[in-house]
Amino acid sequence: MPNALPANRNIFSRYPWLSLLLRICGSAIALLVLFRFLPLGKVLQTLRRLPPHLWMMLVAAYLCAHVIAITKWRMMVNLAGARLTFRQAVRCYFSGLFSTLFLPSIIGGDVVRAAMAFRMGKSKAGIVLGGVIDRSLDFVALVLLAALGAALVPGTLPMEARHIFFIGGIVLIATGILIAPLVLWFPARKIRFGLRRRMIRLRRAARSMRGKPQRVAAALCLGILAQGSFIWLTSRAAAATDLHLLFRAWLFAWPLAKFCAVIPITQGGIGVREAALVVLLIPFGAPAVKTAAVGLAWEAVIISGGLIAGLAAFLLGRFSGASAAATHTEMAPEAPSSKFQSS
Fold first, then answer.
1. Number of domains making up the chain
2. Region of residue 258 (phi > 0: left; psi between -120 and 50: alpha; otherwise: beta)
3. Considering the domain boundaries, does residue 24 fall inside one?
């Protein structure tokens, strides 16, 4: 009996495919529930209105927007002492982006990205702290965009929804304000030595970032630009499927749908994101069928972009390995000639 609890507790580590299978089932259930209320034939008919060349342009623009996100992430981890080159940052970030296709949420992709950066960067604490700050800035950027959308549509958005949204934003900001001092000024001598050393490294990285707030502000601007680009691309896909909404409606609904997709109960948020988008855009007069079609189109863009990112990360790894081997060969000392060997 004593061994039964650890065995049950580690069932997902022993069988990693089981977690993936459960998330795929979660996505399938979410889609089945969604299409239980929506005619699948009409959704697919609407989806076919998206021209193939526009879909390819959306994938290319999606990856270009992620280049902005790469610049932001590299800025944060290097500010904390990681010292990654841009090529290394691209490889780590694209590996994480590819991994999100198979992991529960974007947080799993962050773990893969950090694990690769550990082997290339100069400071593991800097990579951890920089990654946390980078993801927090993405969260703040989405909140700001959603708040802007909510402020621009006061007549369309129900009063109850606005109250819930603003109260939730205040609670999150207050939580961040309370947690930040604990990280910066927590007495390290109160904890054991191994954990104390990690805390000291994190604190040093945090202080180096605190000393350059203009860099953090610039990263936040890049985050707003990247997330705003994703929203604009979704609105372009919607316009191609004859779903015409004011951009302010997308500003409000898209970030909230993305927050719903982070919940690790489905594979990459598939099914949950579409359902949330349908519900959030109903007050703006969006037909549910067209909204679901746009959500599926955006899922196709995410999956295609993730696969291309994985291929790019693989090629960068092969190219970097070949370059390192060639450099090592050139720097290796020449073997002595047979004339000197015989003597």
1. 1
2. alpha
3. no
Is residue 321 one of the residues assigned to a domain? no
Joined tokens for residue 38: 């929506």
Distance from C-alpha of 88 to C-alpha of 86, rounded to nearest angstrom: 5
**What are phi and psi for residue 268, nearest 5 degrees?**
65, 20
**Which structural domain, as residue segments, surrounds residue 140?**
38-315
**How many other C-beta atoms lie within 10 A of the C-beta of residue 14?**
8
> Cβ of 249: how many Cβ atoms within 10 Å?
22
Overall residue count recorded for the chain in this entry: 343
Sign of CA dihedral 164, 166, 172, 177: negative
- Output the pTM of the full model: 0.73
Alpha-carbon gap, residue 255 to 237, rounded angstroms: 16
Classified as helix, coil or strand, 15 is coil
Assess contact for 91 and 311: CB atoms under 8 A.
no
User: φ, ψ for residue 322 (rounded to 5)?
Assistant: -65, -40
**Residuewise pLDDT in 10s, the chain (343 residues):** 444 444 444 554 565 556 656 666 766 676 676 667 677 777 778 778 888 888 899 999 999 999 999 999 999 999 878 889 999 999 999 999 998 887 655 566 788 898 999 988 888 888 888 888 888 888 889 888 988 887 777 665 566 666 665 666 676 666 666 655 655 555 545 545 444 455 555 555 566 556 677 888 899 999 999 999 999 999 999 988 888 888 888 988 898 888 877 766 666 667 778 888 888 888 888 888 888 888 888 888 998 999 999 999 999 888 766 555 554 455 555 545 444 444 3
